[in-house]
């Protein structure tokens, strides 16, 4: 059995992260001692590492929630197909983000090209003040 600080250290995260995952239902509630301390088991550590690894792959909380449901019912073959579809969708989102980042990089390089250190004015600042941008609404891949 571990206390929350020990669990956080073992999983390489913070106690706030654990409490947050508990609050949003990604992580099972811990048992409590008589003095009301949370106590965690190896099962909790395994789940936390699973969540951490998914987050490292930039999966959303909803994607992780779906994968947890699939992991909790390994005998259901259709759920495995759902995991494959989820990953395919996530890959598509990553490909879209790569294209967006390439475009962003091109814009920044173009902006950098406006820098003329011998000038008294900063071309970068002037361009930022005058440029027109295509503002897109934030979108989620969930």
TrEMBL record:
Keywords: DNA-binding. Gene3D superfamilies: 1.10.1660.10. It comes from the Bacteria. PROSITE patterns: HTH_MERR_1, HTH_MERR_2. SMART domains: HTH_MERR. InterPro entries: CadR-PbrR (IPR011791), DNA-bd_dom_put_sf (IPR009061), MerR-type_HTH_dom (IPR000551), MerR_fam (IPR047057). Residues 1-70 form the HTH merR-type domain. The keyword DNA-binding applies. This is Cd(II)/Pb(II)-responsive transcriptional regulator. It comes from Orbus sasakiae.
């Amino acid at each position: 059995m571990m206390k929350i600080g020990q669990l956080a250290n073992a999983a390489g995260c913070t106690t706030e992260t654990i409490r947050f995952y508990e609050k949003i239902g990604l992580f099972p509630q811990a048992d409590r001692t008589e003095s009301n301390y949370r106590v965690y088991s190896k099962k909790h550590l395994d789940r936390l590492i699973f969540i951490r690894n998914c987050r490292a792959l930039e999966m959303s909380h909803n994607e992780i929630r779906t994968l947890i449901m699939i992991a909790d019912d390994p005998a259901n073959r259709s759920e495995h197909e759902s995991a494959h579809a989820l990953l395919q969708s996530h890959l598509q989102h990553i490909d879209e983000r790569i294209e967006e980042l390439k475009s962003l990089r091109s814009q920044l390089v173009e902006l950098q090209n406006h820098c003329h250190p011998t000038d008294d004015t900063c071309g970068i600042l002037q361009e930022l003040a005058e440029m027109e941008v295509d503002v897109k609404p934030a979108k989620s891949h969930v």
